[in-house]
Amino acid sequence: MESVVTGRHVVFSHGQESGPWGRKISALAEVARSEGYDAHSVDYRGIVEPRARVAKLVDFCKELAGDLVLVGSSMGGYVAVASASLLHARGVFLMAPALYLDGLPELRPGVLDCPATVVHGWRDEVVPYEHSVRFAQSYHSALHLLESDHRMHNQIRVIQYLFEYFLIALDLPPIAFE
Q1: Exposed, middle or buried by CB within 10 Å (0-12, 13-18, 19+), for 175?
Q2: Burial 20-45 (b: 16+ CB within 10 A, else e)
C-alpha cells in the first residue's frame, strides 16, 4: 500500500470531452501550487457514467490526507459536487458545472457541506448558466458570470484570479459579528 500523503491538495476533475491537463486545469494548477497546494488531476477519459467518475475520484482521494479542495469543469463539476461531502472537502470550485442536466443522476438534497464558488459563461451552449444560478442560490455559493462560452478559454486569467481568491478565502478566519 502506498504511503498516505499529508498536506494541502487541489484535485481537478475534467469535463466529458477534455483531458486531465487541459488549458484551464493547467492554468489553475499553477495557482494552486503558488498557494501551497499539491495539484492533482484525475484522468476520467473513457469513463462516461457519472457515478463511475465519482467512484474514481473518491478512490483517488483516499490516499490524500489534509486539506482537500475539489475543482471541477463541466461534468467534472458534477463529479466534484457529488463527491465533496463523501471526501470532507474543504471547498469546491466549479467551472460551468454540468448540474441539473437531463440524463445525469439527481444529486441528493444538501449534497454540499463546504464553501463553493461557481464560474460560468453567459454564452454557454452546453450547460445553461441558469443552472449555476440555481445551484449557487440553493447552496449560498459565490457566483461569477463571465462573458464567455462553455470552455471559457477567453477568461482563463480572470478564472485564475477568482481561484486564487477562493483558496486565500478558505484560510481566512470567520468574521465575528457583535
Answers
A1: exposed
A2: bebebbeebbebbeebebebbbbebe
CA distances from 149 to 22, 80, 101 (A): 16, 21, 17
- Beta bridge partners, 93, equal 71, 117
Q: Where are the domains of the chain?
A: 16-170
Q: What is the mean pLDDT of each run of 10 residues along the chain (178 residues)?
A: 70 93 96 97 96 97 94 97 96 97 89 96 97 96 97 97 97 79
Cβ within 8 Å of residue 69, ≥6 positions away: 8, 9, 10, 11, 32, 37, 89, 90, 91, 92, 93, 167, 170
State which fold the 16-170 domain adopts: Rossmann fold (3.40.50)
Q: Are 135 and 96 in contact (CB under 8 A)?
A: no
The reported pTM is 0.94
Question: Per residue in 79-90, is it b (16+ CB within 10 Å) or e — as a string?
Answer: bbbbbbeebebb
DSSP string, 5-23: EEEEEEEEE--TTS-TT-H
